[in-house]
Queue: 3 jobs
Job 1
Amino acid sequence: MNIKIKDLYASINGQPILKGVDLELNSGKVHALMGPNGSGKSTLSNVIIGHPSFQVTGGEVLVDGENILEMEPHERARLGLFLAFQYPVEVPGVTVGRFLKRAVDIRAGEGNTKGFVKKLREMMDYMEIDQQFINRYLNEGFSGGEKKRMEILQMLMLKPDFAILDETDSGLDIDALQVVAKGVNRLREGDFGALVITHYQRILNHIRPDYVHIMYQGRIVTSGGNELVDALEANGYDWIRKQYGIEEDSDVKPVTSG
Amino acid sequence: MSNQSQAVDPQTVEIEDYKFGFHYPDSSVFKTRKGLDSEVVRAISHHKSEPEWMLDFRLRSHETFLKKPMPNWGGDLSDINFDEIYYYAKPSEKQWKSWEEVPESIKETFDRIGIPEAERKFLAGVGAQYDSEMVYHNLQESLSDQGVIFSDPETGLRDYPDIFKKYFGTVIPYTDNKFAALNSAVWSGGSFVYVPPGVKVDIPLQAYFRINSENFGQFERTLIIADEGSFVHYVEGCTAPIYTTDSLHSAVVEIIALPGSRVRYSTVQNWSGDVYNLVTKRAVAYENATVEWVDGNIGSKRTMKYPSIWLMGEGAHGEVLSIAFAGKNQEQDTGGKAVHAADNTSSVITSKSISKDGGIATYRGHIKVEEGVRNARSHVVCDALILDPESGTNTYPYMDILSDDVTIEHEAKVSRISEEQLFYLMSRGMDEAEAAMMIVNGFLEPLVKQLPMEYAVELNRLIELEMEGSVG
């Protein structure tokens, strides 16, 4: 899968967040997207999947050449896109088992889900999730770490062509982080691609990216390899601003809406 | 009647997804004229060859009906025109014990609703009412051998006069409210159930109520007596054709749960959108008896219905599970009542409502604990889910606590289907309608899983039909 983001502009409640994003992503590769709070990382992931709260005001997102911006979120999912949510949503009364069965039915086509339960149990063991969770209501009462593992479990079951992980590392202790990384790495052979969004270097020690992109004030300001991660770690985001001659933009308030 | 044996094409009116909106030509063998006066009341009684006391009861009830004011609370009933309604329509000359003998158009109706199939699969007995009369009644032989009675109330009055007269009208007097008075005046059909001491009816008895005629009033009357230590599960279902004018369904259901018995009464009401559904349901539970009302209200134009339990004996327990779905042009005013009149009694009322497309779902409940009663416990939970900004919900939990030795808990929660939930599920491949359906099913899940499987499936199916194609 090839995803081409061209000069993408988007806003929420009239406030511009993305201001001309250009980025090309390919399956078979893991991309890291780093940037300070409010730089537009989460907005970018939500716009790619089609969150209705964001308005696209310019540009396009092409998946294998086809513009997906007019598609409903479920149509994008059916193309093979997946978002691991920063804040997974609770769905009371819907069990993990029933939900995942239906999602896998859609992804694989009904009748092609033989061995679903066996596979689910195997993946739950792999993600160190208690089997009891099959009958728990989706994300309801889960701890932060349990929710994040559940996102990765869903990803393992759905086997997307391309997954976006929106700050999956935030709020995780080191053990949980390693389990999450293990889940992503399991899919890495073959055509699977991912965009790992993070503030911190930490998760990238466990999921080594092929490419690193830096976002600042709603644009991708530079792309490169792992050396960018080290430079950021050493110098902080101010270094990016100075390095790339970005003016301090006093209009832009940090956005935390996702 | 020659016209009954030939098949007639049903006239189907397709409005939205109401599957049961068809009707057959009116082929009643006897019908009272439009409107209601004492002559009509006498005609019904005469036609049924009733004893004098029942005619007196009907006439007194009719007078009370005329005197009582319309309720000035609950749903808007101002459009009901009592002069435009037919109060009695007899569909056939007799009642059958086998589906093969039931007149073709009537049998086809019940076939399309799935009643004979359900009977074969999982019911101990079935009664099927068409307009004013039960046209079919059957009970498994093993149960009649044990002394279980399952018939229409006319048969109860005729063949079991002692037990019938002892309990009839004792739980809901004809003076109770305007619609109980109306039912008492013109009642016809319904069920009469008696379960002897210690007998457990393990599989449900079902009565099915079908309105076929236009501008019709159906006034069935149900009396259930569970003798000491017995158990019975009674299920009722209802549908009607879609007409352009309104019909009225006003039933009275009385349950007597004698010491140590348990009665479960389940309703899946799916009237068409032009039926006023104004029903009085009440049970008395004696020492250590349990009564459970499971009340699903999916259809109708307006429903006002609050199944009640009077806990009269020590250790009695009552439960009301109420599920309401208020769609376009619908008002569901439902809930439950529990009166604690004895020590160590407990009640649980759980209400879940969904409103959509401008529908209004109202919970109206009443918990009363009589003076001097010790250790009464009551737990009330009402949850409302609102699917769009046009729809609404109300909660009126009345409490009347005259004793200090009580534990009362009340929880109420209103939630809206959230954009975040929809987006989350859609990002996993479900389209918007399916995602909304999944959220609604999840909302109902804690309640639905307490229903017997067949009814849980039926309820889910009905709600799916209501939800279909109208989200977004």
Job 2
Amino acid sequence: MTEPLLSVQDLRTYFRTSAGVARAVDGVSFEIAPNESVGVVGESGCGKSVTSLSLLRLIQRPGSIEPGSKIAFEGTDLLALDDEAMRKIRGNRIAMIFQEPMTALNPVFTVGAQLAEVPRVHSSIGKRDAWARAVEMLGTVGIPDPAERAKSYPHQLSGGMRQRVMIGMALMLSPSLLIADEPTTALDVTIQAQILELLADLRARTAMSVLLITHDLGVVAESTSRVIVMYAGEIVEQADVRELFAKPHHPYTEGLMAAMPRAGTKRERLTVIPGAVPSPYDWPAGCRFHARCPYAWERCEREHPPLYQIGAGHVSRCHLAVEPERRNTPHVPLAAQIGARA
Amino acid sequence: MLALRWLSALALIVVLSLLFWRYAHPASIATASRRRAAAARYATHPSAVIALLALLALYVIAALAPWLATHDPIALLPQSFVNHPPSRELLFGTDYVGRDVFSRVLFGTRLSLSIALLATVLSVLLGTAYGLIAGFVGGALDTAMMRLVDAFLAIPRIVLLIAIGALWAPLGVTSLVLILGLTAWFGTSRLVRAEVLSLRERDMVAAARALGARDLAIVRRHVLPNVLTPVIVSATLGVAGVIINEATLSFLGIGISDPAPSLGNIIRDGSPFIATAWWAALFPGLALVITAMAYNLAGDGLRDAMDPRQVDR
């Protein structure tokens, strides 16, 4: 494997509030290679967004990245940089796009002005040159008649167009890593496909890497080569995208896949994973998924599973890796039993 | 009188440049279409339209006071003209020392409007800066700054003004502008802080940060332009309050002192004689009421026009 672009080791981001310490991200390690597209999936509250904000060091009080965490990017230790050096990384080397392009754009400026602002933040480029580059970028992200559209205000554009503008803003300085936090969640399905296609196309053309954060396994299947599944602040499974879909190992991953609506199958109701993500203030002891797991046994309540190597580039945080026969005896998960009793 | 002229010129320049900055700057607040929509909403309030016309008329009258005045506002007419009732020559009559009330009201309106406008500009600048800093920095600084504002707000405005005015006496036009401005910004700072607190949590601020923008650039590009609308509305309503406060101070003898006319001290001069020479207090009183009401109604209209979320009552 070549030198990774980004290497995260034992990332822990805690929020110290009056209610206690919320361990939102609790020991996450992964790598992204140059020009690779990696997906991060998981339910709301599993720590995926906090992970991505941590990479840019945009965690606000009372959150903080704990000592001992390591984020190496292009050979630089991001956590050792001072604020000004970190600011120069943002937008320049690592860029991020957000879920809701309406609220992420400023309503009082034209989109052209907002794009042109990005290079001006990082260099002393002239206004006219910046505007020209903004118009060029609008063309690159597939906006028809870019010179005219650049003069539009965000509210004059459709949701898909606005997300294209956001992507354009993020790519103004050709970053080597683009973090996309649920970039298609607020869009309808056809537009969603177009945006994913655009991202894939731009990645192919610019050699940047993409970290795609989503709760939608379908999105991951379409546009990434490797998948990280997060649960309760941890990585629970990581594999090549084909491997993961063909042979999901962790019961949580299995649950996510079963919960996906599929065309051509006749099911009256969607399968759900019983229960909810536990509170980050008080993760359960042992395996954090055991109460919702149909295979959990006594060991799962007692012993926190490590990431077991179960194939080439495939790891899973589940004791089934060492006791695979347990998979043959599923039962009703604890969370569902409690639910039934109540 | 030279200082007066200088002040009104300055006030005019400030207002014109604010208007220019707001409407002619390329990165203006509203697009042409939004501006038209706001203007259309404003036009649906007849009272607001009348108020706007009244304000325009008042400013024209104030600007042209030296040419419109029929007499010198300070000069005393002969003894036989003391407390003279309104007539063709003396439109609003004369006061107890024989000065033409019409001319005094013209110049008084001019002085009161100028003082109120300058004081409001000062208070808006102060309040906006204060609220921006408190809201954007947040944390302990925010708490400390806002408790200070609470403390000031707990003291009735007029008591605060009288106390400062008494310490500072005698007050000239400049010092009056200063004390009125320095005591009028608390509400604005609260308003701005509240807006900033909501704006800084918006995705656009997170997105700007993620693209490497400095705090100052975020305040300048994302926070400030988005707080201007409520600030402009509250400033318009604020002018009315400042005009009343200035008149109150002058009425109490702490503000503008004789012989220079301000609406407040003209009313004071006329009030002891209200039973016999009602005109000396009534006409400046009307001018004061019309001015304050026009600002209030215009402010209400602006608020409804600029914030479509608020439903018409």
Job 3
Amino acid sequence: MRETFVATTTALLDEDPRTALVLADISADVFRPALRRHPDRALNVGIREQLMVGVGGGLALTGMRPYLHSYAPFLIDRAYEQIKLDLGHQDAGAVLVSIGGSYDAAAAGYTHQSPGDVALLDTLDGWTVQVPGHRDEVPAMLREAARHDDRVYIRLGAQENTRAYPDGAKLRVLKRGGPLVLAVGPMLDPVLAATRDLDVTVAYTNTPRPLDTEGVRLLAEAEVIVVEPYLAGTSARLVSEALSGLPHRALHLGVARAEVRDYGTWQDHARAHGLDEAGLRRSLEKFLGDA
Amino acid sequence: MTVTTLRRLTGDEKHAPSAHSTLDVLRVLYERVLRVTPETADEPDRDRFLLSKGHGPAAYYAVLADRGFIPEEWLDRMGQWHSPLGTHPDRVLIPGVEIGTGSLGHGLGLAVGTALGLRAQGLVHSRMFVLLGDAELDEGSNHEAIAYAAAVQLPITAIVIDNQSATHGWPSYQPETLAGSSAGIPARFPGWTVSVVDGHDHDEIERGLLVRTERPHLVVATVEAKWS
């Protein structure tokens, strides 16, 4: 996904003089051609994430469309107050593109991981959050974001589904049956595998914010299970609002709060958080069996 | 004129203008330096002034009223319900205010980004000024912006009002400049050109603000110590 991001953003910089790119060293090597070609609009501020977001806010105040990029823990967690004040409070927008969300940087440890990025943005107003499940979903997100000035977060992951669903902004039903299982981004393939022989409805979205609450209300009957690739329960409030007034049971699966002090690969961490096929199957059977 | 406006805003005599560390710098900026008026406040090529030190904006509001950006009546209701004027300024609510500030250490980064945006769009005649307090320099975010502005030779002007209010000061470690506990402020802006001026002397302030080099420029405006 990062390669797709680099190629599309490099092309956008060539095509649209309003666009700008601000880096804080991360990915500066792969953006070298863009940095060389557009020295006024493609900027690397060094290892200075607070400044990266402040610069993004300033560029936006002059009418430009800044794309900011780093590891999620540095882009979102570290620069949270700049995101809140230098963008939101100024009524300015930017496109934030992260890598290294939840546990993609498994071997690097917790300092390089951000399971809470989407929850942090949920404390703020007006953020569109996109979690592509496949690299081919990325270019349209980046290009659409160039056409307006709103605040957009695009969370690129190491984990991908086998196929792309470019129109994933609303809930897209992939399997019809009983209780709704909502899979966000790269959670789709493990969800489909875990529910292969279960009587459930499976819906996909790559745009959890704004959440398609109308879709949730239409598809969820008495039971809904949300599987998100970031902090478990991040969407619980919105799902609860969507189903307000309807008696329902809900299960929210995702990354646990407790730090997994271990390394390995993202597959190892998915297993540790119960987000692989077997773990999802266990959680689903228990929840549905308890009904 | 600003004297009466300021008195109107603060409502009593004890807040005489001399007690407002930023007033003289703000007056010189708006009366002599900045190419911006209420009519040009949205022009892309206007000069920008960013008040990073959003604390104590009374003098700022008084100058904005005096220059016609906001009605003087607004000054009577600062901080009240439905007043556009808070105890920190909000750009969305106040004409002529470029950024909303309050939390310290945000203005310099926004100034760097704004200056880069102007440069990228060829608006090279727009000048960028940003005002900070010496205590605000304690925030680490400033130092990200200070170093980067020097590295890319960004022609912005930062004004630091030095009323020696930083808890641990900004001491100089060079014996010949042990003038005060904040004498080391210029040393924290490596790669910048520097003017140190009397923060109440309008001609000195103006000379400092008019300096234009190929590098970022620092104006340290010295005023009486906050706790003196």
